[in-house]
Design brief:
Layout: H1 2-13, H2 17-25, H3 29-40, H4 42-63, H5 72-80, E1 82-85, E2 93-95, E3 101-102, E4 110-113, H6 114-117, H7 121-125, E5 145-148, E6 153-155, H8 165-170, H9 178-202, H10 206-219, H11 222-227, H12 233-252, H13 258-277, H14 281-297, H15 303-324, E7 328-329, E8 334-335, H16 339-348, H17 351-359, H18 361-366, H19 383-402, H20 406-430, H21 444-457, H22 464-490, H23 515-538, H24 541-544
Parallel strand pairs: 1-6
Antiparallel strand pairs: 1-2, 3-4, 4-5, 7-8
Helix pairs in contact: 1-3, 4-9, 4-22, 4-23, 9-10, 9-12, 9-13, 10-19, 10-21, 10-22, 10-23, 12-13, 12-14, 12-21, 14-15, 16-20, 19-21, 19-22, 20-21, 22-23
Length: about 550
């Protein structure tokens, strides 16, 4: 009996096709398997992981004041106000509600609380050095109503800058108590990300734990900041991460299994999240779907399998082309059909313009790790933040690159080339220099996809020494960035970061723990999450030490 218990336990942590045959033949063993998981603490470990990531994200969600993330005023107004317009009618109709009314005197505008429409203006414009201005000025905005034209409109034309599903969903949390509503939205986004990320990773068994290291390293600190915010990038980042992880599981499944169905569910949820939040996220999903299907489908000479894969690839490519020529890059108002603009700018700008942006590419990529700062880029993060964050992610990427086959190395080079090429082309299409308008967060989902694919393609597991080093660097980077962000809004950054966050304090939420407690909880939870991931990976070291990833090694 103990032999069968051990066999069932290994089936939960390892991807084994023979395990799925036994489950299919003897469904009653699923109940025994579940009991064994609980006894051995596997299910409990997963719940603790979700809880620790949630605490880390909630700490980040409390670190910034209302309006702290880019374009948050627009996003909040679009949540609080529901505007519609017909294709033949240029007049925007604002639905009257308890939180927003249409402006009767001025068309195409809405009357909404100033703390919703313009929450960031007081601490960005009332001081010559915005980073030194706390968010205490928001007290003056309490109960003040203003008229604004800046909100998303649901229409049959291109008036909508963002998809409306995100705003419709979050509208359930809107209320006249703006602070309470914002906290609920940030809590919802943090909870969704915590549960969905680890649920999708669990479908890959022991290899999912390896990918989890790469995801957690890449998240700190920029990904943590945006996922826990009100910004629509939260759903795009969460959806992209879980889409690629779930798609790996679905494509590798050789039959129907419990993991296959869970991964399929995560895949559908991820697609909906990305489609509901930002338009530019869809091409990223289509690109990686095309890439992964193409790289995994033709590993074996099977005519029927190859024919199905060819049909799927053709459909994905057609969808990608159709989307590119009919939609917009809403995030920066760049038409995806930018070829005419590209020709125009190439005529107006000589070769030195694109060459100048090429030399600035490292500056843009370092923005993925926080070198540009947070907020409206007025928050100055210590240089140690992005140096440690870059180093931790780069160490994992370099190991994955070195422990991959020649074909997989070529794949990584191609993906990085595509990312850099997109950055240059989009800047050229707009005629802007790197560092002026287009923000790194627009390309962050693509970068996360590269990190996940690199971790999934390696043939050896990360050494303990490497993972521990990465954990220390990522934890320090995350902790310093979190503290600097809290400091910016509580007193302004003219107060040293080393001083207590509780005293002096000019602004803080009306409810919840004190700033110093939030920072300490976020730091310890993030460190504990790394420790738990390392423990969970190593507790089955006898069974899986230095085991390759046969499904992806090629």
């Amino acid at each position: 009996m103990d032999y069968w218990f051990n066999f069932l336990y290994r089936s939960f942590t390892r991807s084994d096709p023979y395990t799925r045959v036994i489950h299919k033949a003897k469904p009653k063993l699923k109940m025994i398997r579940t009991i064994k998981q609980i006894v051995r603490g596997e299910l409990l470990l997963q719940l603790i992981k979700i809880l620790l990531l949630l605490i880390s994200l909630l700490s980040w969600s409390s670190s910034s004041a209302i309006g702290g993330s880019p374009d948050e005023g627009y996003v909040l107004t679009s949540i609080w106000c529901e505007g519609t317009a017909k294709l033949s009618d240029a007049v925007i109709q604002v639905k009257d509600s308890n939180t927003c009314q249409g402006d009767k005197e001025r068309p195409n505008r809405a009357l909404v609380l100033a703390l919703v429409a313009e929450p960031e203006l007081c601490y960005l414009s009332e001081s010559p050095t915005p980073k030194d201005q706390s968010a205490a000025c928001q007290q003056k905005l309490q109960g003040v109503t203003i008229s604004t034209p800046n909100f998303n409109v649901e229409s049959e034309s291109s008036l909508d800058v963002y998809p409306n599903s995100y705003f419709k969903t979050m509208r359930n949390f809107a209320s006249n108590d703006v602070e309470n509503g914002v906290k609920k939205i940030r809590f919802a986004n943090s909870s969704l990300a915590s549960a969905l990320i680890f649920l999708s990773l669990s479908t890959l068994g022991s290899r999912g734990k390896e990918i989890g290291f790469a995801i957690l390293a890449a998240l700190a600190p920029t990904g943590m900041y945006f996922i826990s915010s009100v910004n629509t990038s939260s759903w795009t980042l969460t959806g992209t991460i879980c889409f690629i992880v779930s798609l790996l599981r679905v494509l590798e499944s050789r039959g129907k299994s419990q993991e296959f169905y869970v991964a399929g569910l995560c895949l559908l949820i991820s697609i909906w999240l990305v489609r509901s939040s930002r338009f530019e996220g869809i091409p990223v999903l289509l690109f990686f779907a095309f890439f992964l299907v193409g790289s995994l489908a033709f590993r074996k000479t099977h005519p029927i399998r190859n024919l199905i894969a060819l049909v799927v690839l053709t459909s994905i490519f057609a969808s990608l082309v159709r989307f590119m020529f009919t939609s917009t890059f809403a995030a920066v108002d760049i038409p995806l059909l930018f070829l005419s603009n590209l020709d125009e700018h190439f005529m107006q700008k000589d070769f030195s313009f694109i060459l100048s942006n090429f030399f600035e590419l490292p500056r843009f990529i370092l923005g993925f790790f926080g070198s540009w700062g947070f907020g409206w880029f007025e928050i100055e993060l210590p240089q140690l933040v992005w140096i440690f964050a870059t180093q931790s992610t780069l160490m994992l990427i370099c190991f994955s690159f070195g422990k991959s086959s020649k074909n997989q190395r070529h794949t990584f080079i191609i993906l990085m080339t595509v990312l850099c090429g997109l950055i240059l082309v989009v800047h050229q299409a707009q005629g802007t220099k790197i560092g002026s308008i287009i923000q790194p967060r627009y390309f962050l989902p693509f970068f996360f996809g590269i990190v996940i694919v690199a971790a999934a393609k390696k043939t050896e597991r990360y050494p303990n020494s490497l993972v521990i080093t990465v954990a220390i660097l990522a934890t320090i980077s995350n902790s310093i960035a979190l503290r600097a962000t809290i400091r910016r809004y509580t007193t302004g950054q003219d107060v040293f970061i080393s001083k207590s966050l509780n005293n002096p304090i000019e602004w803080w939420w009306q409810f919840g723990p004190q700033p110093e407690t939030v920072w300490l909880a976020g730091t310890l939870a993030f460190a504990a999450l790394w420790a738990l991931l390392i423990y969970d990976r190593n507790k089955n070291e006898v069974d899986s030490a230095n085991s390759p990833a046969p499904e992806l090694a090629s």
